[in-house]
Specification:
With 461 residues, the protein is an alpha+beta fold. It contains 11 helices and 20 strands. 26% of the residues lie in helices and 24% in strands. α5 packs across α7 and α7 packs across α9. The longest helix has 17 residues.
Length: 461
């Protein structure tokens, strides 16, 4: 696919009234500082008819007047602390063209070809970049990149939805909450949990993308896109939730009583055995953890873990509004011996994941705030989020609850949405399928020698 760049320029926020000061700064929060220090990229594809580039551009300028952080730059204040400078220097806006139909040009799975549909991720001072690529069939691909220190996936998806509303002439509400100083440490601090060598390490890491070489990685790592239907997910949830129901039944038996379950209409259906389920996410991650571990042929006595992001907006007490703009994520680290993970049923892995995620609660988040506010000033520590997973470990990013498919520029929902090409072994991503029926697509980067073993087991329950 040959992409012809027609223009590349900086665009700045457009304000209804007098522009605000361009010298103010927003300090990064403890949750910003511990996150991935780099750009991420996603790809949207739209079928014709699509809006003109000018409509998309004007909508972007409008939404940047409210989400000013994206039009700023990363920097440091007088004390040397990292900040976002609200200088309105703007975002990169690229217009491009491909003289072929969309369906003949791009694959519907991660491929090096996708790197031509968004601006480069390295050596970039802009915090957001947009590339609009038109195809001969009238289709439009929007390549979007954003710096992860500014906002997490939840906040970024809210921005994208607001951008679409601006393009359609609608109010962009609910408006974001920008105050990153709300995470106040306790006095005295309470370090209730271990955070060193969890969120932070004393060993200076090499950033994931410092030595990123597409050609080398493409030879060693392949990204397998696996589609899980709703029927498969329902069967998986039933099997993977067995341990939960067995635990409940054991508690019932010990008390010699039943649990009363309400029917969907709110009326009691009498005493019955419980039928609780783990979440689809927990069950699918458990299944993939087992499949990838089996494909890697690890030793029985090795320990393997999964890094799972946990949104703090619903965990902190008092709750942080859903429209909070910034990062508010920590991680759970479920661990298991390879022997136990593979020899026990899937329900064992699901239980391990559920219990680890449940522990990342209000107490854990507040302990982290105290640690990051006090200990980091006394010691040289570095975020572990910028370290590649070890050969025995995994990291999972879930986009299952983000409204990415609500990015409507005036032509409806995107025909396709997917991550760009990032072949880092061990970092997998879950996304709602663009079929829109509740099915899930998993993007799994694997060493090519492990791919066939993974395929042999990924659809087996």
């Amino acid at each position: 696919m040959k992409v012809k760049i027609e223009s590349s320029r900086i665009i700045k926020p457009c304000y209804d009234g007098p522009p605000p000061s361009t010298t103010s700064c927003i300090p990064l929060s403890p949750f910003d500082n511990t996150n991935y220090d780099g750009q991420i990229a996603v790809i949207y594809a739209y079928r014709p008819p699509t809006p003109p580039n000018l409509t998309v551009k004007l909508g972007l300028q409008k939404v940047l007047s409210v989400y000013r952080e994206w039009a700023g730059r990363l920097g440091k204040n007088e004390e040397g602390d990292p900040v976002i400078v609200l200088n309105d220097k703007g975002v990169r806006f690229v217009e491009a063209y491909v003289n072929d139909p969309l369906d003949e040009s791009i694959p519907y799975k991660p491929s090096p070809v996708l790197l031509t549909l968004h601006p480069p991720l390295k050596g970039v001072e802009e915090l957001v970049q947009v590339q609009l690529t038109r195809f001969s069939c009238g289709s439009l691909v929007v390549g979007f990149t954003a710096h992860h220190l500014v906002a997490d996936g939840h906040a970024t998806s809210n921005f994208l939805v607001a951008w679409g509303k601006c393009c359609r002439g609608l109010e962009m509400g609910p408006l974001p909450t920008h105050d990153r100083t709300i995470f106040v440490p306790r006095d005295p601090p309470k370090f209730e949990f271990q955070h060193k060598e969890v969120e932070y390490t004393s060993v200076k890491p090499t950033k994931i993308d410092d030595d990123f070489d597409d050609s080398i990685l493409a030879e060693e790592v392949v990204i397998d896109k696996v589609h899980f239907t709703t029927d498969f997910l329902a069967n998986l949830k039933s099997r993977a939730s067995l341990s939960l129901n067995e635990d409940i039944r054991s508690a019932i038996d010990s008390k010699s009583e039943y649990i009363t379950v309400s029917s969907p209409n709110g009326t009691s259906n009498g005493p019955t055995q419980p039928t609780r389920m783990y979440s689809t996410f927990e069950c699918l991650v458990a299944h993939l953890w087992r499949c990838i571990t089996r494909a890697r042929a690890l030793s029985d006595f090795e320990t393997t873990q999964v890094r799972i992001s946990v949104n703090g907006r619903m965990r902190l007490n008092p709750r942080v509004p859903n429209n909070y703009f910034g990062n508010l994520v920590l991680w759970a680290f479920p661990k298991a011996k390879v022997k136990d993970l593979l020899n026990e049923p899937t329900s064992y892995a699901t239980k391990v994941i559920h219990e680890a995620v449940s522990k990342v609660d209000d107490h854990y988040f507040k302990s982290f705030i105290d640690f990051a506010s006090y200990t980091l000033k006394e010691e040289d520590l570095y975020p572990t989020q910028n370290i590649n997973p070890s050969p025995a470990n995994l990291e999972v990013d879930s986009w299952l609850r983000f409204p990415f498919y609500d990015l409507d520029f005036g032509c409806g929902s995107p025909h396709m949405f997917m991550p760009s090409y990032f072949p880092t072994e061990g970092i997998m991503l879950l996304s709602p399928s663009f079929e829109g029926d509740g099915s899930i697509d998993a993007f799994i980067p694997l060493h090519k020698d492990h791919l066939e073993r993974f395929k042999d087991s990924c659809y087996t329950l």
